[in-house]
Amino acid sequence: MSYAIFRSESINTLKDLGEIGAHNKRDKKTYKSNPDVDMSRSKNNIEIVPLNERYSKGYYELVKEYKKEYEEKQKTTREDRRKPFDKMLDDSNSVVADELMFTSDNEFFKNMSKKDIKKWADSCMEFVYNDLGYTKEQVLHSVVHMDEKTPHMHCVVVPLIKKYDKRTNTEKYTISKKHYMKSGEYISELQDKYWKRMNDNGFKLERGIKNSDNEHISIKEFKKLTRKLDARMEKQNHLMTRDYEILEEKLKTSKPTLTGKEIKIDKETYDILKDFMNTSKRVIKDMPNNQALFEELNDYTNHYREMEQKNRHLEVEIRRLEDKNDELRDENRRLHNFLNVMLQTIKKFFNKLLHIGSEKDKDNVVEEITSYHGLGYYSDRDLHDIADDTPREEEINNYIYEQNYRIDKDYDDRDIDI
After folding, report:
1. Roughly how many angstroms between the first and final C-alpha of the chain, as a whole number?
2. Separation of CA 125 from chain center
3. CB atoms < 10 A from the CB of 153, how many?
4. What is the pTM of this model?
5. Helix, strand, coil fractions of the chain, as percent rounded to 5
6. In 3D, which of 35, 37, 50, 20 has the Cα closest to residue 147?
7. What whole-number distance in Å separates Cα of residue 148 and Cα of residue 300?
8. Would you say residue 39 has pLDDT above 70?
9. Which conformational region is residue 277 in: left (phi greater than 0), alpha (psi within -120 to 50 degrees), or beta?
10. Phi (first) and psi of residue 310, to 5 degrees
């Protein structure tokens, strides 16, 4: 039985969008020598949602109201904070667009007529509109490639929405993949919906899993993944605990000195604090990778549970893997909670540095807390608490406003494979 395969890959910059457009529209001369693309068959490619111009031009037409709104706002923005619309898109923590890819294996497409493949592609577009929730106006381009080894469809969408802004009590444009690809639980529901829609339309397919290129992963490979995640989290726990204990011990003996109107901490204490913040930042940045591995393991566990019905001899091994997966989930949760406690603990210290530190100290604090905010570990409220009644309060409040106005934060900016 063939699998229903659907993937979502983030497009993060306008340059990436242009390159993807050149690939999807076969505009590159290099395809003439590309062994994966048979240009003599490109005439058989099926345009589902045509685009008769370059991706960049079509994209700017699609987001023209957003661009107009943003440029109007720039007129009242501090000059040193102004950015052109395209640079704002590239610099944001969200996507500029999202590419959806649909396919199966060669066996599924074997003996299919072009008319049947068009019907399959139309069913995929039904999923895009009715299950994912995109409108036709949000679809930049959709095409079925018939000139590669296996037929597949690329559908580029722009998750442009209007979002309520509490600060101005108005609705404003933003780009948010998270609006359509919500939690992991919701993505699992989408898997079910895609599989059901395909089968309801007469295409007999198995329900796919994430990273379906590895749907027949071996027990050996699975164990390798568990060891990788186990070692990663053990190392992170060690680093965080070590640096925190050193910092805690130093703060017990460190005495601030009064110089004029400023209170300064000694360089050794500051260096220890900086080491702790750098370690925290590295661990926090690596958390999405941990989560990606954990979700991959979880999918494989579910997949092997289905295989168990056909392969009873795997029963004992599968139970061991499930137990290990549960342990890793608990370890991941403990590390996550530990990080949250640590970040909440040092909020007052950040606030104090913004009051009494040197200008360089204050710059470092602003850089650190906005980085944590961008990663989703400090909320708007946390930043307000740290900045409260300090010389950098206005600067930090402006940062919070700009983030909420421009682009919805996509705290798990990973590509999502279904």
Report:
1. 17
2. 23
3. 22
4. 0.53
5. 60, 15, 25
6. 37
7. 29
8. yes
9. alpha
10. -95, -20
Taking only the tens place, the pLDDT of each residue in 387-409 is 999 999 999 998 888 887 654 44
3-state SS class at 94: coil
CA distance 37 to 290: 35
Phi then psi for 416, rounded to 5 degrees?
Answer: -115, 120
Answer whether 244's CB lies under 8 Å from 276's CB. Answer: yes
Residue where the block lists tokens 């540095």: 353
| Alpha-carbon distances, residue 352 vs 231, 257, 315, 379, 390 (angstroms) | 36, 14, 57, 19, 9
Looking at residue 411, its pLDDT comes to 41
CA distance 272 to 268: 6
Distance separating alpha carbons of residues 113 and 119, to the nearest angstrom: 10
Q: List beta partners, residue 155.
A: 100, 142
Lookup: tokens for 170 = 């108005």
What is 200-237 written as a DSSP string?
A: HTT---EEP-TTGGGTT--HHHHHHHHHHHHHHHHHHH
> Minimal CA–CA distance to 198: which of 399, 6, 395, 398?
6
The pLDDT tens digits of the residues spanning 97-152 come to: 999 999 988 889 998 999 999 999 999 999 999 999 999 999 999 999 999 889 99
Contact 46, 121 (CB under 8 A): yes
Q: Which whole-number Å values give the CA distances from 74 to 137, 379, 403, in the listed order? A: 26, 25, 14
Amino acid, single-letter form, for residue 323: D
Three-class SS state of 112: coil
| Burial zone of 220 (CB within 10 Å; 0-12 exposed, 13-18 middle, 19+ buried) | exposed
CB atoms within 10 A of CB 91: 11
| 276-318 pLDDT tens trace | 777 776 776 666 666 666 666 666 666 555 555 555 555 566 6
* C-beta separation of 153 from 102 below 8 A: yes
Q: Provide the angle, in degrees to the nearest 10, between the axes of the packed helices 315-345 and 347-356.
A: 30
Other Cβ atoms closer than 10 A to 202:
10
| Contact (Cβ atoms closer than 8 angstroms) between residue 150 and residue 127 | no
